[in-house]
Amino acid sequence: QIHLVESGGGLVQPGGSLRLSCAVSGSDFGPYGLAWYRQAPGRQREWVATITPSGTTRYRDGLSDRFTISRDNAKKTVDLQGTSLKTEDTAVYFCAHATADGDNWAAWGQGTQVTVSS
User: Fold this and answer.
1) How far is the C-alpha of 96 from the C-alpha of 68, rounded, in Å?
2) pLDDT above 90 for 89
3) HSE (CB half, 13 Å, CA atoms) of 27?
4) CA-CA to 35 of 20 to 30 Å: which in 3, 12, 26, 107?
5) Contact, 93 vs 36, CB < 8 A?
6) Residues near 48 by Cβ (< 8 Å), separated by ≥ 6?
7) What is the pLDDT of residues 57-82, one digit of tens each?
8) Pairing of β 77-82 and β 18-25
9) Would you place residue 23 in the very low, low, confident or very high pLDDT band (cuts 50, 70, 90)?
10) What gap in Å lies between CA 61 and CA 42, rounded to an integer?
11) Cβ contact 97:36 at 8 Å
């Protein structure tokens, strides 16, 4: 029922910026936490950032100065802005929508590829 679709990925040079967007349908959206994860080649999926229904944000250690997560409850979107991107940021980026009790993820998007390369 809940459907998430990421967009905005692509090729960016080291030091560049990208803004990813995740559009959510099948949810009343506002009461739910949201997150971004990423999976690099040969690596396990790792958490990047979360945002609560009230707008409180958390980031993976070392990423808060380069990534910003935001939400728009009217548009039912959650975005991830990345700046000063590094080659180590190359990954497929996924958005996730929390369950009603907030202890797990109810749905994931299909992912969008971010490649940081000169």
Assistant:
1) 16
2) yes
3) 26
4) 12
5) yes
6) 35, 36, 37, 38, 59, 60, 63, 67, 69, 80, 93
7) 999 999 999 999 999 999 999 999 99
8) antiparallel
9) very high
10) 21
11) no
Task: Give CA–CA dist 93/9, Å, rounded.
Answer: 8
Written as six digits, the tokens of 91 are 């990954």
Instruction: Say if residue 19's pLDDT is above 90.
Output: yes
Tell me which residue has tokens 């349908």.
25
Q: Is 57 helix (H, G, I), strand (E, B) or coil?
A: strand
Torsion angles phi and psi, residue 77, rounded to 5: -130, 150
pLDDT digits 0-9 by tens, 106-116: 999 999 999 99
Contact by Cβ (8 Å): 25, 11: no
How many CB atoms lie under 10 A from the CB of residue 76?
Answer: 17
